[in-house]
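Why does this matter for the project? Reviewers at the last site visit asked to see concrete outputs rather than summary tables. In response, this paragraph embeds two records directly. Each consists of the residue sequence and, immediately after it, the corresponding structure tokens. Nothing has been edited or filtered.
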Amino acid sequence: MTGAGARASRQSEDWYLIRTNLSAAELDGNAPVRPTKAWLHVERAFRSMKTVDFNVRPVFLYSEDRVGADVFRCMLAHSLDWHMPERWKPLPFDDEKIDEASAALAYAATKAGCSEQARDKDKSKRADGGLPPHTFRTFLKDPGTLAYNINHSHTHFSANTKIVLIRRPTSIQAKAFALLAINPACIQ
């Protein structure tokens, strides 16, 4: 890579040497860079698995079963960390068109800028549908305010009366659950 592509890659925070056995005629110069950039997301996810993001306590891996269980738990956490933000992209201050902006770059090593849609969200301070935008972490806290209460009472009409109270979701919660295709009343 020469010229503007080399200057752009110098501005990125990480340097990687990517080797391939294909000739330049068979492979565009940017083709090996794109999958490597995608792999960086996986690396970052595994780095954060057991740190602040998930608050996972240390597990003592003294048997093969525990090692397998720990890897499975990490994969489940990564799956949640990947799929939920993907489905919730219309709600927070995320750029939904970032992949299109990255594909339009002349050199894959350069950082993609914001799309027009992301700039509009930033200016209006509103997500799609006029809802106030959140971050992924605040969305994880927001559904926790839903309540499913079961009250048992003894009255003179019935010896054991059961009253179930389900709090109605807010407009933000309703939109978030709709994007996940979840009915909060049915998962209790």
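We now turn to the second protein, recorded in exactly the same manner.
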Amino acid sequence: MKEARHLIPNERKPEIAKKELAQQKIKEAKRIKELKESLKTASEEDKKHI
């Protein structure tokens, strides 16, 4: 019975998996954008100090 339970999560509908993957990519894109913006503001602040 335990082995059967392991198979259940893998047999999800592909649409659900695609949606989850899309959401993950959106989250990653937002994180990258935020990092780039924070780096930009940090470099601008550094220029002010010089």
